[in-house]
Amino acid sequence: MIRASTRAVGRTEGLVSRSMSSGPAQDLVVIGGGPGGYVAAIRAAQLGMKTTCVEKRGTLGGTCLNVGCIPSKAVLHSSHLYEEATHSFKSHGINLPGGATIDLQQMMRKKDQSVFNLTRGVEGLFKMNRISYAKEVSTLPTVPIDDQTIVSSTGVLELSDVPRRMIVIGGGYIGLEMGSVWSRLGTEVTVVEFLDRIVPAMDREIGAQLMRILKKQRLNFKLSTKVVGATKTPVGLRLTVEPSAGGVQEIVEADVVLVSIGRRPYTAGLGLENVGVQVDRRGQVSIDDHFRTSAQGVYAVGDVVRGPMLAHKAEDEGLVAVEIMAGMPGHINYNAIPVVVYTNPEVAMAKTYDSGGDYALGMVKILSDKATDKVLGMHVIGPGAGEMIAEGVLAIETGTTTKEIAKTVHAHPTLSEAFREAAMSAHGKPTNYYKM
């Protein structure tokens, strides 16, 4: 065991512990090499701390880089290209003799190469900063994962064939993104969601519009529905579902079932209870506003603490926690952390509010304070929403008003013009907006 003046534990995305012992071999030990952990290690090294990172995988980058955000976005991009080739190229005068075909094995190799390149990049950052490096998902009891026919968000990225039918349990962003991938590749996809809406944290108006769009893309939905059993058959799987509130049961069949009901923090087996760190029944660590846990000198960041399991949230927490340990001021505005759903079109939001209203094919929705006119929240649905949401995050962080956005010239023709139109609409004076 390494004695350290500062230890960081971090999904194990970041538990950071500080014990002021004398003569340590290292100033900082980071347990967990995900976005929160490896960024914390780099910042600590930049601040002059001797740092070691301990990671249970053979590679750095955590869930996001190895089996989450990065590989899923690689496959999302490939499936989008296939969709374009089969449905859009011809209208642009681009003809493919014989039509586009799928080589799923090559698609997966491309995904794996992307992950390999990026994990090696993180290792390169560790070497450059002289950081030494020592080399679980939620499940349903009624639907046990075997990663063959009943798969997790990790297993669904390793399928060797395009299934004919897929049931996605969970209508959150992971389920919708992965459902979109396989739908584009030709799979008949049905999303089963316990609640009465998809992506519950999303603005209700935006969520309703997204579901309308996804239905046009051949995704099917069963809302307010729960899965009560699963049986393997010679030709696939048979799921028993019923209304969430109880009622008549129904049988639905599929070749593959994706269980995407969320992830759990990876804190089991770390011995946190032995050092006095309080962990709840989900494995989540309790912290104060400075990321300090219940144990003296132990800090936690990332997926092991409260809030959404987002890589960019973990990164910011890792940076701030280390700066606080170094005696620097640190603060995170949790009201201005963007969330992106990488469907087609993308959906992005900064701060979550819910309100009613009409919808169009794509939109920018701004919520502002009636008294001060300051932007409180922003939601975007449309191409490039993940890039566009940065304007909303900046507006929230800086206290920008809708009048100020309305007076800001946006280039034409661009999608960002929608921000100005939305801001002008807040004062009843849009120039290029009409109600459908």
Automatic annotation (TrEMBL):
<keyword id="KW-0274">FAD</keyword>
<feature type="disulfide bond" description="Redox-active">
    <location>
        <begin position="64"/>
        <end position="69"/>
    </location>
</feature>
<feature type="binding site">
    <location>
        <position position="303"/>
    </location>
    <ligand>
        <name>FAD</name>
    </ligand>
</feature>
<dbReference type="InterPro" id="IPR016156">
    <property type="entry name" value="FAD/NAD-linked_Rdtase_dimer_sf"/>
</dbReference>
<dbReference type="InterPro" id="IPR001100">
    <property type="entry name" value="Pyr_nuc-diS_OxRdtase"/>
</dbReference>
<keyword id="KW-0547">Nucleotide-binding</keyword>
<dbReference type="GO" id="GO:0045252">
    <property type="term" value="C:oxoglutarate dehydrogenase complex"/>
</dbReference>
<protein>
    <recommendedName>
        <fullName>Dihydrolipoyl dehydrogenase</fullName>
    </recommendedName>
</protein>
<keyword id="KW-0520">NAD</keyword>
<dbReference type="InterPro" id="IPR004099">
    <property type="entry name" value="Pyr_nucl-diS_OxRdtase_dimer"/>
</dbReference>
<keyword id="KW-0285">Flavoprotein</keyword>
<feature type="binding site">
    <location>
        <position position="73"/>
    </location>
    <ligand>
        <name>FAD</name>
    </ligand>
</feature>
<keyword id="KW-0676">Redox-active center</keyword>
<feature type="binding site">
    <location>
        <position position="262"/>
    </location>
    <ligand>
        <name>NAD(+)</name>
    </ligand>
</feature>
<keyword id="KW-0560">Oxidoreductase</keyword>
<feature type="binding site">
    <location>
        <begin position="309"/>
        <end position="312"/>
    </location>
    <ligand>
        <name>FAD</name>
    </ligand>
</feature>
<dbReference type="InterPro" id="IPR023753">
    <property type="entry name" value="FAD/NAD-binding_dom"/>
</dbReference>
<feature type="active site" description="Proton acceptor">
    <location>
        <position position="412"/>
    </location>
</feature>
<feature type="region of interest" description="Disordered">
    <location>
        <begin position="1"/>
        <end position="20"/>
    </location>
</feature>
<dbReference type="GO" id="GO:0050660">
    <property type="term" value="F:flavin adenine dinucleotide binding"/>
</dbReference>
<comment type="similarity">
    <text>Belongs to the class-I pyridine nucleotide-disulfide oxidoreductase family.</text>
</comment>
<dbReference type="Pfam" id="PF02852">
    <property type="entry name" value="Pyr_redox_dim"/>
</dbReference>
<dbReference type="GO" id="GO:0004148">
    <property type="term" value="F:dihydrolipoyl dehydrogenase (NADH) activity"/>
</dbReference>
<keyword id="KW-1015">Disulfide bond</keyword>
<feature type="binding site">
    <location>
        <position position="193"/>
    </location>
    <ligand>
        <name>NAD(+)</name>
    </ligand>
</feature>
<dbReference type="Pfam" id="PF07992">
    <property type="entry name" value="Pyr_redox_2"/>
</dbReference>
<dbReference type="InterPro" id="IPR012999">
    <property type="entry name" value="Pyr_OxRdtase_I_AS"/>
</dbReference>
<dbReference type="GO" id="GO:0006103">
    <property type="term" value="P:2-oxoglutarate metabolic process"/>
</dbReference>
<feature type="domain" description="Pyridine nucleotide-disulphide oxidoreductase dimerisation">
    <location>
        <begin position="337"/>
        <end position="423"/>
    </location>
</feature>
<feature type="binding site">
    <location>
        <begin position="170"/>
        <end position="177"/>
    </location>
    <ligand>
        <name>NAD(+)</name>
    </ligand>
</feature>
<dbReference type="InterPro" id="IPR050151">
    <property type="entry name" value="Class-I_Pyr_Nuc-Dis_Oxidored"/>
</dbReference>
<dbReference type="GO" id="GO:0005739">
    <property type="term" value="C:mitochondrion"/>
</dbReference>
<dbReference type="InterPro" id="IPR036188">
    <property type="entry name" value="FAD/NAD-bd_sf"/>
</dbReference>
<feature type="domain" description="FAD/NAD(P)-binding">
    <location>
        <begin position="27"/>
        <end position="318"/>
    </location>
</feature>
